[in-house]
Amino acid sequence: MGEATAEARVMGFVQALEVMLRHALGVRATGLEQVALTASAGRVLAAELRADRDQPPFDRSTRDGFAVRAAEWSAGKRLRLVGQVRAGEAWTGGALAVGCAVEIMTGAPVPQGVDAVAMIEHAEQAGGEVWPAAGRSLRVGENVVAQGSEARQGEVVVATGTEIGAAEIALAAGCGRAELAVFMRPTVTIVATGDELVELDEAPGTHQIRNSNSYALAAMVGAAGGQARRSAIARDTREDLRARIGEGSESQLMILSGGVSAGKYDLVEEVLAEFGVEFFFTGVRMQPGKPVVFGRMRRSESADAHEWTYFFGLPGNPVSTQVTFHCFVEPLLRAMCGAGVGGPKFVQATLAEDVRGKAGLTRILPAHLGYDLTRPEVTLVGWQGSGDLAANARANCYAVLPDGVDLLAGDVITVLLR
After folding, report:
1. Residue 262, Cβ neighbours under 10 Å: how many?
2. Helix (H) or strand (E) holding 218
3. Helix (H) or strand (E) run with residue 333 in it
4. Could you give the angle at the alpha carbon of 17 between the alpha carbons of 12 and 20, nearest 5°?
5. What is the pLDDT of residues 294-327, one digit of tens each?
6. What is the distance between the alpha carbons of residues 402 and 362, in angstroms, rounded to a whole number?
7. How do beta strands 412-417 and 49-50 pair?
8. Euclidean distance between CA atoms 142 and 84, whole angstroms
9. What 3 state SS string does 364-386 have?
10. DSSP, residue by residue, 151-216
């Protein structure tokens, strides 16, 4: 472990992301458990899911229409209707003879002896016969999903490390799985710092504010797959900070908010150094969030080389706290959940207005992303700085504005989703 030092390690935004992602590559999920399928949303799969039978288990019609031979249909022949098959039924009439057709419903098994399904809208019928409407033909396999074309029995259909959502739950249900093996949630201790903070059940004085950050952080930790533990507020004394950091050092991840700037009572870095920690960066050239700190410490004296408690010291202003969480904490936490390594949730959109650049800082500002189908636009939300909770709540994303670049309306920019 590297020697702790108070020397500043201030990095550019991209460099800091690279540092965090390198460490994310080295973390591992610890332990697994079985959970009910209905409780698996948001968890990470710990054992690959395999198909219990061919998917689909039969040649399946994708349309309401008529099961036919493509060659006969394309030749314009009149075919004799010999029955009907619905979804959930099995055709019992054996292989269809030449010159015959079967009425079929979407999702039903295609009878043997035919190789396509003609859509009902493309057919004419009368007197127990069916034939193609003018100009209609069929290719072999048209409107039919062949047995096993989605997955073969025993094939992996969801890989280990996949975050489970509705699509994966539907697939697991289709494979008959009432339970899934998932990775354990990593424990995350949240420590809000500052003499100005009071808890929600206290009446704040005129000089105090409520402890909003620990609630926001707990919500974001839960959404990212972690198990949040809110610590008592750490007051601006070395003794109190030591106690709270000591408690958090047994978690897999510790998040401190506040106390990382350069003020007289911003003691977080100094007290962390007393624990023999390794700092990876102690600032990032970004706005908001410049004082963000990232590092790790041994979880205990007897821990092996992989037993680290990673920590982040996030700025105390709430917009700074949330921006830096989404940029740096969330990707590392998802890796700890077993979901593999991915960066922040960046997308691109068209800027709705001119924006002047600011030299020396990557700015990540509250914004609103529109829902236009063909050209989604992002608009900055007016705010009063990184303490503006109301502006942050009006936003649904953050606009990422590059260092020193003047932007024009219509330019494509990066957007950080949340």
Report:
1. 9
2. helix 213-223
3. helix 330-336
4. 125
5. 999 988 654 554 589 999 999 999 999 999 999 9
6. 5
7. unpaired
8. 19
9. EEEEEECCCCCCCEEEECCCCCC
10. B-TT-EEE-TTPBP-HHHHHHHHHTT-SEEEEEPPPEEEEEEB-TTEE-TTS---TT-EE--HHHH
| pTM given for the model | 0.90
What counts of helices (H) and strands (E) characterise the chain? Answer: 9, 27
Q: Which residues neighbour 323 within 8 Å (Cβ) at sequence distance 6 or greater?
A: 286, 288, 289, 364, 398, 416
Q: pLDDT tens digits for 120-147?
A: 999 999 999 999 999 999 999 999 999 9
Give the pLDDT score at 167. Answer: 98
Contacts 24+ apart (CB under 8 A), 155-158: 155/50, 155/51, 156/48, 156/49, 156/50, 157/49, 157/50, 157/51, 157/55, 158/45, 158/48, 158/49
Q: What residues are paired with 257 via a beta bridge?
A: 192, 314
Here the contacts of 210-217 (C-beta below 8 Å, separation 24 or greater) are: 212/318, 212/389, 213/257, 213/258, 213/314, 213/316, 213/318, 213/321, 214/190, 214/257, 216/318, 216/321, 216/322, 217/190, 217/255, 217/257, 217/321, 217/325
Bridge partners for 163 per DSSP: 44
Alpha-carbon distance of 27 to 161, in angstroms, equals: 13
